[in-house]
C-alpha cells in the first residue's frame, strides 16, 4: 500500500512518462555492465534539482533507499542494491549551466555527459583538468564524481575529485547542500575551500551520502603541443615500472598500458570502416597541412599488424604549452621506457585515442562468445 501511494505521488510530481514501473524496464535498471541485483520498486527521472530534491524527500520519508544512476557505465555495482529502493536516473538533467572564462570554471547538471562538455569547450581553448573517461560517450560527469573516475588528463591532474570545485547535493531528507564558495550568499563557485572541505565528502561515495544535482569544475588552458609515444615490454613488471616513473615525474597527460589479452581483443573490435573514420579524426586533430599528411601516413603504414607481436604495450600522450617542453618530456619518457626494457613501436593507439577520445562503446560479447569487460 505504501508503495502504491508513493508511486502515485511521484507520478503526480514528475509525470507518468518519468516514473518507470514496467517489469522489463526495471530488470534492465537492476544491472550494470558486470553485475545484477534486486529490481528497484521504480525508476524516476527528475528534470531539475527542485524535482530531484522533492522526489528524494518523498521516497526516504517511507524508509526506502535511493539509488542514483548516471550513464550506466559502472561495472562496480555502484548503483545496485538488494535493499528496497527507488532508482534516480539522471538522464534528463544534462544542461551545461555556465562556462565562466573569467574565473575559469564550468557548472553542469550531474547527468551531463563527458562528450557534451568536451564539445562545448573544445573551441574555447580550455578544458577541465581531468576531462573524461573512455566511456564518456555515455558516462555522466556526476557518475564520474561518484566513482572518482580517472583517464583523460589524469596523468598530470589526478582523479575526477581533484577537478571539482563545488557541488549541489541532495541529502536523504530532500534538502540541497551547496559546497565550496558557491555556498556564500551572492557568491560564485570559483573556489573549493569555504570552511571544511564538504566537496571531498561527496566524491567517490557512489551516491551513498547524497545525490549530486550540479557540479562545478575548474577550467585550465588547453596545452596545444602534443606528442605521442608507445612501447612494447616483454612483461608487465617493466611496463608498470615505466608507467610509475612517468607518473612520478609528471611527464604525460595520459599514460596507460594494455596486457596481451586486452589489446588483442581491442584489435578485433573495430572494422575497416571504423579505421577509415578514425584516420579522418587523426588528420583533423593536427594543426598544419604537413603534420596532417605525416600523421595520416604514420597511422596507415603502421596499420594493425604491429600489435600482433606486442606483449605488454605502454602508451603516453604529452600535452604542453611549448614545443621545447613537449619534446623534453617526450625524450624523458623514452629514456624511462628504455631503462625498463621497453622497445618503441608505432604510436597509432595514443594518437587515435587523443583524436577520437569518446569512441562508440564496445560489444559486451566477443566474436567467440567471450565476455568483454569493461566495454
Automatic annotation (TrEMBL):
InterPro entries on file: FAD-bd_PCMH, FAD-bd_PCMH-like_sf, FAD-bd_PCMH_sub1, FAD-bd_PCMH_sub2, Oxid_FAD_bind_N
Record's keyword annotation contains Iron-sulfur: no
Listed GO MF terms: D-lactate dehydrogenase (cytochrome) activity; D-lactate dehydrogenase (NAD+) activity; FAD binding
SUPFAM superfamilies named in the record: FAD-binding/transporter-associated domain-like
Pfam family, one: FAD_binding_4
Keyword line: FAD, Flavoprotein
BP GO annotations: lactate catabolic process
Top-level taxon of the source organism: Bacteria
FAD-binding PCMH-type domain sequence ranges: 36-222
Family to which the UniProt record says this protein belongs: Belongs to the FAD-binding oxidoreductase/transferase type 4 family.
PANTHER family recorded: D-LACTATE DEHYDROGENASE, D-LACTATE DEHYDROGENASE, MITOCHONDRIAL-RELATED
The name this protein goes by in its record: FAD-binding oxidoreductase
Lineage of origin: Bacteria, Pseudomonadati, Pseudomonadota, Alphaproteobacteria, PS1 clade
